Inverse folding.
């Protein structure tokens, strides 16, 4: 069977080689197949990271030539075959596997457009007044485009300054600019300026500038002060930027909808706890247990980081299906120096109870095989504090299959495990949850009992009790501490 398979591969590969060599005969008389392009950079000075610049220019080359496979073009070959009046079943099948939409000819290439794009990429990196030319290199039925870019010495930064800006916005920007990566002597680089705008925007957002956008910032370069290729870089605001975009916002009110239902928004009760309004919370999720997961505070500046932390911590409780934080602007309270937000936290709970069944088939190296089943009952928010109770009952049966004296032996196991998880630290000494920035530790307790019977060998009844803590230090690291772990063997 293996020999037939190898022969088939060889015949298929040979067929591809023979057919791919025949591509040229399908190319029209007045056309040449475009096989790609190259870029050569010539400069009157040393270019830092020239290989990176070459990669950027190569990405700008258009169009893309037809694909190759092991130096051949089977996709193009089967495209041409499909143009025949009766391509046949085999050609149709191979076209679906390898075929391309259409061939790319020399006439499809627009050298002047490509040259313009290349010059644009050069100018974005400070190489102003560069020159781009092109030339086709042609062989029998094929054409290769060669582009030549003459790079002029790039412009470099002489200084980076702030333009006139209104207060308190000016002070915020000035403080952020002190952390800039733009420095004297750096090449003009549009991508670096975009990253600088985004960095400043991110810092402003963290300081409460709810309506600000990085596109409101504008860089201007002034070369009039220098004979050599240097420039002063100025950062300023665009014209007609809305006033509310350049004032910080604080949170004046926090409403927590502990049991939110989009179909029924009736407010049954409102409890004021720790400067937050807990709506429909008393009979579902006690405010004193829900409050530690919320890092937003009244009087606090708007911060997307705090919003993200709050959403993540609330989601980690395990009692909620959706966590949605929305901010509402209080336009009537907007002043020249401050904006007001109302934060609404909508929490949509999961079903309180759930039942999960798992079926499995086991096959082991010692020839034991058999079915298994487990049934898990979950009760979320058991004591109205985000607690989760998981109770699992399992049964498995295995039989040793095969010849020999041990065949026919069986194994049966029964298990019952109950696990209770509290989304907070239960410890004799009170631990401040603010110490855990990323996630609040959970207290995990469990008890289990297992019965195992191996025919003709032994019977074992054992129990386990555990108590410990589990929490995430960050996105990638999870800690688990089990100080109490007891195993009891009954018989």
């Amino acid at each position: 069977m293996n020999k037939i398979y190898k022969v088939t591969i060889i015949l298929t590969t040979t067929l591809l080689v023979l057919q791919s060599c025949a591509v040229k005969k399908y190319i029209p008389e007045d056309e040449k197949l475009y096989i790609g392009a190259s870029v050569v950079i010539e400069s009157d000075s040393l270019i830092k990271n020239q290989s990176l610049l070459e990669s950027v220019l190569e990405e700008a080359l258009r169009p893309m030539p037809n694909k190759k496979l092991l130096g051949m073009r089977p996709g193009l070959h089967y495209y041409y075959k499909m143009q025949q009046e009766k391509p046949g079943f085999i050609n149709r099948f191979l076209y679906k596997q390898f075929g391309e939409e259409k061939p790319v000819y020399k006439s499809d290439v627009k050298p002047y457009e490509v040259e313009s794009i290349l010059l644009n990429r050069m100018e974005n990196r400070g190489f102003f007044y560069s020159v781009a030319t092109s030339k086709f290199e042609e062989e029998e039925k094929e054409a290769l485009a060669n582009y030549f870019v003459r790079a002029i010495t790039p412009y470099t930064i002489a200084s980076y300054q702030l333009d006139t800006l209104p207060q308190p916005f000016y002070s915020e920007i000035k403080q952020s600019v002190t952390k800039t990566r733009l420095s004297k002597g750096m090449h003009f680089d549009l991508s670096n300026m975009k990253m600088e705008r985004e960095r400043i925007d991110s810092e402003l957002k963290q300081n409460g500038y709810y309506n600000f956008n990085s596109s409101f910032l504008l860089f201007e370069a002034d070369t009039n002060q220098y004979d050599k290729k240097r420039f002063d870089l100025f950062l300023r605001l665009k014209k007609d930027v809305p006033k509310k975009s350049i004032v910080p916002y604080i949170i004046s009110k926090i409403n927590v909808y502990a049991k939110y239902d989009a179909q029924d928004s009736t407010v049954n009760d409102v409890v004021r706890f720790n400067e937050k309004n807990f709506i429909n919370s008393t009979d579902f999720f006690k405010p004193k247990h829900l409050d530690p997961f919320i890092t937003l505070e009244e009087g606090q500046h708007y911060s997307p980081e705090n919003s993200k932390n709050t959403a993540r911590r609330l989601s980690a409780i395990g009692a909620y299906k959706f966590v949605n934080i929305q901010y509402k602007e209080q336009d009537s309270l907007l002043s020249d120096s401050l904006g007001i937000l109302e934060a609404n936290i909508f929490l949509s709970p999961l079903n309180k109870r759930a039942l999960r069944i798992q079926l499995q088939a086991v096959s082991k190296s010692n020839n034991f095989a058999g079915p298994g089943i487990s049934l898990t009952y979950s009760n979320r928010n058991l004591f109205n504090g985000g607690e989760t109770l998981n109770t699992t009952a399992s049964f498995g049966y295995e039989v040793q299959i095969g010849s020999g004296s041990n065949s026919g032996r069986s194994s049966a196991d029964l298990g019952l495990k109950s696990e209770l998880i509290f989304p907070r630290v239960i410890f004799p000494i009170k631990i401040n949850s603010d110490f855990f920035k990323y996630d609040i530790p959970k207290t995990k307790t469990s008890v289990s009992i297992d019965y195992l019977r191996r025919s003709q060998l032994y019977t074992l009844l054992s129990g386990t009790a555990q108590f410990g803590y589990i929490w995430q230090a960050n996105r990638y690291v999870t800690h688990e501490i089990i100080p109490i772990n007891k195993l009891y063997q009954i018989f």
In short: The chain has four domains: 19-65+104-151, 156-246, 249-349, 353-489.
